[in-house]
Amino acid sequence: MTNFNDLSSQSKTWIYTSEREFTSQEIELINNKAKDFIADWESHGKSVKGLIEIRYNRFIFIYADDQSDTLCGRATDSSVRFIQELEQELNISLMDRMLIAYKEENQITTTSLPDFQNLITEQKITENTTVFNCILTQKSELENWEVPAKNSWHKQLIGSV
User: Fold this and answer.
1) Span 88-101, mean pLDDT?
2) Rounded CA gap, 134 and 69, in Å?
């Protein structure tokens, strides 16, 4: 299994958000399925150097170390199928890109985009609220994952109020 530090900073990165925390049994299931998926993950007949990790019992990160930019569409599609299978097995949504994650009193909370905008209007979300920027696409961008809203794409929403 590939170690996070062994992945290139240019590794492709996909971040999936769960609307709730995973249970310990779900984490074990995800980790076991992830090991199997990574062991069989191929692009153009060659093994993909990849990693799947869970953060905060709520986010699934998939990394593909693709320094030569040769990750084929079939390899990408198989990672999406992996997530879709987890969704079905865990009865949870992981691919809802309208789900916003942020910290509220040091707890991670998720809400829909319209509800997030309402929280901004009510001034319950401010430019200093910690948000999770799950649209990042490379490992090198991870320093911008958990940041104040003013340092993320979320600032567009705050500025529109």
Assistant:
1) 95
2) 21
Q: Where does the pLDDT of residue 72 fall: very low under 50, low under 70, confident under 90, or very high at 90 and above?
A: confident
**HEC per residue, 79-127:** HHHHHHHHHHHHCCCCCCCCEEEEEECCEEEEEEHHHHHHHHHCCCCCC
Going by pLDDT thresholds of 50, 70 and 90, the confidence category of residue 74 is confident
Full set of structural domains in the chain with CATH:
4-90 (3.30.310), 99-133+144-159 (no CATH)
Which tokens go with 23?
């249970």
Please report the sign of the dihedral spanned by the C-alpha atoms of residue 151, residue 152, residue 158, residue 160: positive
Per the CB < 8 A criterion, the answer to whether 122 and 115 are in contact is: no
CA distance 149 to 8: 27
Answer yes or no: are the C-beta atoms of 155 and 127 closer than 8 Å: yes
The whole-model pTM stands at: 0.93
Q: Is the pLDDT of residue 67 over 80?
A: no
